[in-house]
Structure formats: C-alpha cells, structure tokens
Design a protein that fits this description.
The complex is a heterodimer. Chain A is mainly β. Chain A has strands at about 10-15, 20-25, 30-40, 45-50, 55, 60-65, 70-75, 85-90, 105-110. In chain A, the strands form two sheets. Chain A has a five-stranded mixed β-sheet, with no helix packed on it. A four-stranded antiparallel β-sheet of chain A has the order 2-7-6-5, with no helix packed on it. In chain A, strand 5 and strand 6 (about 60-65) form a beta hairpin. The chains are: A mainly beta, B mainly beta.
Chain lengths: ~110, ~110
C-alpha cells in the first residue's frame, strides 16, 4: 500500500470549512484514497473514498488532484463533534480478498468554538 | 452504529492470564479484521479472516490467535498476557472491496 503524508494537527473554527490535506505521491493506478476518522478511543469511522473523481456524501467531500498524488478532505461546516484524528489511507479497491487498511498517524483536527 | 459488535467493552485481567475477545460482523460481511491500538503504536493490523479462513497476517504475536466460525463471528484469543498487551482491540468487517466498518473495541487492561 502506498504511503501517505498528513500534517500532525490542524485547527478549525466551528461553522467554518475544514480542509484536511493528504499527500500520496506513490499511489498506484488501482489504489483508492480512503478517509477515516477516530473520535477519542472510539472505533475508526469510515468517511468517504474515491479513485480519481471528486466525491461527496452526507459527511464530507473528497477532492483528488488530477495526477492523483494528493487529495483534500473537506468538512463543509465543522462542528465541535468533528474533533477527531483523521486518517488518509490508500488501498486497492478490488481484485483480491485482503483489503486491510494500514493506518498512519493521521491529522488531529481540533474544532474550536 | 457501524453494525459491528464487540464484546466485552472492557476487560481487566492479570499477567499470565488468557482472554477471549468476540466480534460479530455486519450482516452479510464475510471478512473480519482485527486491529490493536496502544498509545505508542497507533492502529496495528493483526489478522484477517475471510469466510472462516485466515487470509492475511500482520503484526500478531504467537501468543495471540484468532478464528472465524461458520456463523462468521470471530474470536481473538490472547494468552500469557503481559503488561504491554494492554490496548484497545478493534474488529472490523467488510464484504469484498467495500470499506471496512469498525466496532467500538474492547479495552484490555493487564495488571
């Protein structure tokens, strides 16, 4: 699995958009970008994933650059409950039966009142 | 609610003992993954089962073992426990290439 690089921490004001960057310059053509978050000691929560097109769901938007070497997770209106560690992970999407996720250190996002 | 159920939520035991952690995957998910999270190591992949068979192994100690039963629930057995085994243990499940969904973990404290 390709390695990802994320800033260790970020701050965001409540109600503003939170933009979390991730570099994955060695990503392969069949690898997807996944985002998870972990709110203090709870299980990691799936947020969104994508291959090369931008994706949006009820939680967030995922913007992947055209060369696929980096991506940005956008939380459009951050709330205090979005304070968590956010993990960017690249992983193959299909074609096998082992789809383990390899977690790095992630980004601690702190949403401030 | 991810649909993945882990029991017990908390477990306190002494060094040298053996414990069993249980995981019920989401309905329809054939794969179960076990992860360990300690303060200094982050989330570490231990082992994966797919439809009852071991499919991938990560940083799992020989004192640890797992199995997946015909009803697809899984158990992680930890034996000869040491203080350093104190951690959160998470189970996740998935079907094919779908995203993994995690339970809320079992917090193991070894005293």
């Amino acid at each position: 699995d390709a390695k990802t690089t994320q800033p260790p921490s970020m701050d965001c004001a409540e109600g503003r958009a939170a933009n979390l960057p991730c570099n994955h310059s060695t990503i392969s053509g069949n690898e997807y970008v996944y985002w998870y978050r972990q709110i203090h000691s709870q299980g990691p929560q799936y947020i969104i994933h994508g291959l090369k097109n931008n994706e949006t769901n009820e939680m967030a938007s995922l913007i992947i650059t055209e060369d696929r070497k980096s991506s940005t997770l956008i939380l459009p209106h951050a709330t205090l409950r979005d304070t968590a560690v956010y993990y960017c992970i690249v992983r193959v999407g299909s074609g096998g039966s082992n789809y383990k996720l390899t977690f790095g250190k992630g980004t601690l996002l702190t949403v401030n009142p | 609610d991810s649909g993945v159920t882990q029991t017990p939520k908390h477990l306190i035991t002494a060094t040298g003992q053996r414990v069993t952690l249980r995981c019920s995957p989401r309905s329809g998910d054939l794969s179960v993954y076990w992860y360990q999270q300690s303060l200094d190591q982050g989330l570490q992949f231990l082992i994966q089962y797919y439809n009852g068979e071991e499919r991938a192994k990560g940083n799992i100690l020989e004192r640890f073992s797992a199995q997946q039963f015909p009803d697809l629930h899984s158990e992680l057995n930890l034996s000869s426990l040491e203080l350093g085994d104190s951690a959160l243990y998470f189970c996740a499940s998935s079907v094919a290439g779908s995203p993994l969904h995690f339970g809320n973990g079992t917090r193991l404290t070894v005293t």
